[in-house]
């Protein structure tokens, strides 16, 4: 295996099991030109709910074949299940912006929710960047940017609160 071979390897990440345990959505990132493209894939879990997560990760004839969740050409990541296991929120890159979408697993037609501010790299390690409210009616998105004006204002203030 050469360095060029390694750069062509697809990576699987951010696997999310639906709250009802019947589906898994995950991100597959593949090299494309000088960058990468991330796509979302969906697979139905086995009907036998006594199966452990380790057993579920093994190939089995009784599981469905993974399908690409979105039409070809999408660059999407950060899939998050709604509490009712019927919808998936995700982030997609479009031109020079990041957009939040929701897609139903029934019709698989993505619906644009909002354009969101790109977050700084480290906020994603603080916890979930995108999350559903417990009732499934709202989405929350965490964003932090390097706003020098805000930093300067806090530095000059005697108030220790951020």
Describe this protein's structure:
- This protein is 12% helix and 39% strand.
- A hairpin with a 6-residue loop joins strand 7 (97-104) and strand 8 (111-116).
- The protein has one domain (3-118).
- The chain has 162 residues and is mainly β.
- It has helices at 3-7, 53-57, 148-156; strands at 11-17, 23-32, 35-44, 67-68, 76-81, 87-94, 97-104, 111-116, 130-132, 139-141.
- The strands form three sheets. Strands 1-2-3-4 form a four-stranded antiparallel sheet, with no helix packed on it. Strands 5-6-7-8 form a four-stranded antiparallel sheet, with no helix packed on it.
Please give a quick description of this structure.
The protein is mainly β. Helix content is 12%, strand content 39%.
Strand order, largest beta sheet: 1-2-3-4
| Global structural class | mainly beta
What is the total number of structural domains? 1
Q: How many extended strands?
A: 10
Task: Report the uncertain regions.
Answer: 149-155
H/I helix tally: 3
Layout of strands and helices, then pairs:
Layout (H helix, E strand, L loop, with lengths): L2 H5 L3 E7 L5 E10 L2 E10 L8 H5 L9 E2 L7 E6 L5 E8 L2 E8 L6 E6 L13 E3 L6 E3 L6 H9 L6
Which tags fit this structure?
10 strands, mainly beta, four-stranded antiparallel β-sheet, single chain, 162 residues, 12% helix
């Amino acid at each position: 295996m050469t360095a060029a071979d390694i750069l062509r390897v697809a990576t699987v990440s951010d696997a999310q099991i639906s709250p009802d345990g019947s589906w898994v959505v995950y991100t597959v990132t593949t090299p494309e030109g000088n960058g990468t493209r991330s796509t979302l894939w969906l697979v139905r879990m086995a009907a036998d709910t006594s199966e452990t997560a380790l057993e579920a990760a093994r190939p089995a004839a009784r599981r469905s074949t993974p399908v690409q969740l979105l039409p070809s050409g999408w660059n999407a990541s950060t899939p998050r299940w709604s509490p009712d296991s019927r919808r998936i929120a995700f982030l997609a890159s479009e031109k020079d912006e990041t957009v939040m979408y929701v897609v139903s697993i029934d019709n698989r037609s993505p619906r644009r929710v909002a354009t969101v501010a790109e977050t700084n790299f480290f906020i994603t390690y603080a916890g979930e960047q995108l999350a559903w409210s417990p009732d499934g009616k709202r989405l929350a998105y965490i964003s932090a940017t390097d706003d020098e004006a805000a930093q300067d204002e806090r530095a000059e203030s005697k108030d220790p609160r951020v």
